[in-house]
## 1
Amino acid sequence: MQPTIIGVRFTKVGKVYHFDSTSMPDVNVGEYVIVDTARGKHLGEVVQKMDEAPPQPEGGWKNVERRATPRDLLLQQHWQTRQTEAMINCRARSSELDLGDVKIVSAEYNYDGTRLAFLFSTESEDKVDLKSLKKDMQKLHPNTQIEMRQIGPRDLAKLLGGMGACGIETRCCSKFLTDFSPISIKMAKEQGISLTPSEITGMCGRLRCCLIYEYEQYVEARKQLPKRNKRVVTPKGEGKVLDVLPLADKVMVAIDAPEGERSQIMTFAREEIEPWDELEALRRKAEAPCDRHEGGGCTCGKDKSTNESPKDSSPKDGGGRDNSGNKPRKNRR
């Protein structure tokens, strides 16, 4: 029997996790459920109902415990109001312990207050020892299980929110990105974006997430266009490709000019240009003699050795006869 898999989200713009709801096949999108996670029981919103089960993760799917009740939703609201107080207390204790560049970003209770996670960030690449801070927080919240969770710069920017480096009022990561894709400098090069750090770096100090938005379209478009410095044939003559405009499906070409004159730079659509090397190869092939003529299997009219037509010199047999079998007549005076 195929299991019923649903997607559950725990924050407004958070990653979607999959759970097995076979015991509750009638659960619908928009409902709230209590699920069992690696960090205890949490309350989340159902945002997906899978028609086909995705590949099973290692260890299998976690189960949906039950539907959330109105009491569960009220409990969650109550503990959320106490998160700011817990964060302030943790920051104060962190300052007293002089933990260096450790920054307590936020505090998150689960829906019933049995677990409390402190999210922190640090610029140091070395592992940070927060045993003393965790022990002090455990004393301050004796009936709650304490967790210290480190987050990266992108998750930090997502939590803090604010204006994006491009000027958009809300950053992409805080507005709609539910997961972070790997970004490389190659994506900026492929799109012709300036490699100046201020142009490709986001508020988190990492490469901007938006570099991947149009990357595949640029790659696909470039496949149909010649690369830079390639020679092409245009309606205005031969020239060299200076730049490629992938989304416009055009190229900028420097047209060859006589010596002493300045080359003219013009833009052409893909349909207007032809690759010079292919045309040159075809021209050379057309001018070359036939390499199959000696075997008699070609009727192109080109002789590899003499470049003469077969009609000009009929082959003779060993007896001096022509192809008809008759001896040639001698000229009589």
## 2
Amino acid sequence: MKAFKKFAFFVGLMLVFVILPGEIRSQYAEDFYENAKLAYRAGEYSKSLDYFTKAIKAGISTSEVYFRRGLSLEKLGDTAHAIDDYTKAIQLDPQMETAYNNRGSAYYRQGSFDQAIKDYSKALQLNPSYSLAYYNRGNAYYGKGDLDQSIGDFTRSLELDPTDPDSYNNRGWALVQKGQVSKAIPDFNRSIELNSDYSLAYYNRGAALLKLDDKNGAISDLTKAIELNPKYELAFFQRGNAHFRNKDLDKALEDYNQAAKLNPNHPDVYNNRGWLFFSKGDINQGIGDASKAIALNPDLARAYANRGWMLRSSKDCIKAIGDFSKALELEGPSATVLAYRGRCYLETGDKKKAVSDFQEAYNLDPNNPEIIVVLAETNQESGDYDSAINFLTKLVSIKPDDALAYMKLGVVLGKQGRFFDATQALSKSIELDPKNGDSYFNRGIVYEFLGDTFSASADFSKAKKLSSEKNSLS
């Protein structure tokens, strides 16, 4: 009997200890969960991750705990495991739109834009008034280059939440990329009204104003962006561009130097600073910076084009041709680069390749005065006066106030024997620039061919006088 009682008491104890650990685990799990939320709010993401994991191991297996652990993982940069947790949350609660939204954002950070769009769209299907999901999907569409869809989603986000500065800023930048720069400015204005400390919006508006050639406005906005974020390397770079275009080369150089200091691996900074050095007459420093840009980004076509032009200026046309050819290989046909390479071919004596480059450049940009001039000159040199006249006639139609263009036309007309037309073109050149002695001299030659020795003598005398005055001034 005693033995039986002992056994019954032992069984009772066993039952007690079987039940208690579960209760204790439940309490521990809640404590872990609450501590995890507190740690997350305090920004202690490693600690919150540890507590969420302990809460799960202790028995909490809800969509909420996996969702929250996913947030901690994302804060710690572990996007892949965050996606796993968001997926688990969705499996436990297929109606959890926030889990779809956040998993979409995790995919977005991985560059998986289509997968992100799919998740954002599911979140919006579950909650059509989810403004954040529209905003996020707008970013994903922008990431894959679909600007129209991106702008549409930012617009829908703003319809639901008209006080969101991010949606205004991002829609503005998408409009800039679409080429609708003027339309973007009101968006940046509104974004800044809603958040006066929004350095990115100041930067974006500054960059947009620079595209509109409002250099001073751009400098003002970019300066504000730098005041708000003194380590804003891109703002220094862009302000350098604005100063450069404003012909303030010293200030531009200061900004490029600061940008390079903040980010020594930004190829565009070196490329632009190199062109600035070249503009200041320091060709070697310019070539050095362009070479640095190419070393950092071997696919930067404009750096090859810039270095090619600098090499040409230093009389190294062979190397320049190589750089221009590389730029064309990387970027495809460019009228400007073809014209540069064509000039080098001319200087190395390869007129056939030069004419081919200039002709291709002209096909790409038939209203480029520089290309028209070169084509006119090469055709004139080869004796094809008809083509030369056609090009120069087009040139004066594009630049009706260009005295030099009329003079060139008058010279070729004279060489073709069209003396009356030549005197008209040269007289127009003199009308536009009465101080150009060359126009008088060339008109004098034409008058001689016409047998008008009196007019010829008068023009030669005028040309000599202007030349004398020019030499005395110099």
## 3
Amino acid sequence: MLAVADILLRKISHLLTFDADERELRGVDVRIADGAIAEIGADLPLGRGETALDCSGLIVLPGLVNAHQHLYQVGLRCIPELERSSIAPWLAGLGRTCMRWWEDGRFTPEMVSALAKAGMTESLLGGVTTLADQHYFFPGGVTEPYIEATIAAAQDVGVRLHAGRGTMTFPQSAGGTAPDAACQSIDEVLRHSLELIGDHHDPDPLARIRIDLAPCGPHVDRPELFAACAEIAAENPGVGLHTHLYEEVDTWFCRERYGKTPWEFIVEHGWGSGREWLAHMVDAPITEIPQYADAGVGIVHLTAPDLRMGFGLAPVREWLEGGCKVGFGTTGSASNDGCNQLGDLRLAALAHRLRPGGPERWLTARELLAMSTRGSATCLGRSALGVVAVGAAADLAAWDIESVDRVGVHDPVIGLVLSGLSDRAEMVIVAGEVLVSGGRCTRLDESLVAAEARAALPIGKTA
């Protein structure tokens, strides 16, 4: 393992910076010191104590930022009876499975930790250096340390984590849509949120761990919770606000119960300050786009799960043209069946060609990679992430552009998205530490991580 502040990346074949000038550089070096980018230039001298890494044949860009995840769902992939389910029966099916595990004493913080570690390792091997997780499932209404276990797993893997304190507070018995047995009181949610902020939140621009407040959605959370979360975020620098919005179920619920759109509902309860980022947004009205841009809220595009759930394609081109902050993510594996963000970018590049308007409106590889780096980081309020610039975090991902599956590629940036048999990164660096080298983890044994996660899962086990 290479120590922080000891690295000089030499002769990078293609460096994609996503900096303010959108620079793409060839044959350059990057010096890393104290977990940050210290210098970018040609033929930089090797400093005392530095280790030079040959990056010829590699395309290097900022580490990918997954702006929406549910890591516990790594244990819920490819459930056969949910293969062709729309959102409502799919949510119910997930809930039944997890409640059964909990009732059998198997849905534990240890299980969540093992699953989170597997999902983070998979993500890291695919070039993701920062994840925004939203853990909202607290069966029995009990605040077990699921989020704390996820934070510990992130520290083991080495990735940056935005740990979202997810919630369900509006039970079916009171007019909401959440299962009664999975709901918590608002007082308990706020108590635990403040505890997490006090124990784990770091507002530093280069923080490894941050806490965000992340109600699951208007259909499963009470209006008072949204308002209380907005107040807490306003009082705690760096604490963001996150939720699902316009995911069909909440669209119908808000119109039927409140006579408002989901956006109008959250704004009425203190959201819209620029601290927020919103996931899915597939059936949001085009007429609201100027309001999203004016409020400075981020929107996370989730191609694979949106298609998996039958939602269709979100109006990403319209968001970009309207001046919105747009990021990218995978969401949880239960509706994606993986944590492969680069693979999802490829899917987005192809799927969005089905939207009206013709080729000039198709999303380009550079636009999609920008969404997945700088765009996602901006959604999270992390200006030091998602760019390669002096002073920015030394979070980098590199892929081999000289492998047999990229023979004949004329543009390595387009080739990274549209070609390649594998999305596994050759090298990944987080905060100046090389965590993936030669396509293998340096801190962890990938096979042991997978074995521990499988051992923790109740799949195929009897009580």
## 4
Amino acid sequence: MAEELIGMEDMEAIFEVTDALGIHRESVRVELTKEDPGSIQRVADGMVEITLPVNESAEVFCRKLRIDLEAMGFEPADNVLGYDDDDDEEESRPSSGPRPRLT
């Protein structure tokens, strides 16, 4: 059986979740081949490593991804791009974004 590779739709589904949690895309490593049962882990250097499963849709896996990332302490970002959208301020500055909760 040939290895199944992830596609652009898979990456878009993953980034939809990680962007919403304020996780910078350069902090996410995604294995290019799918492996069952799939995995989500935060490694010592702070990176989030993700392997999608072969026998489960990216949509279903990404629901689990969000739950697991929130359990790791990531919280929803107010603004996906990390910028303050308040028009009343004189200048918009990049925000530091949400910080993972340490437990």
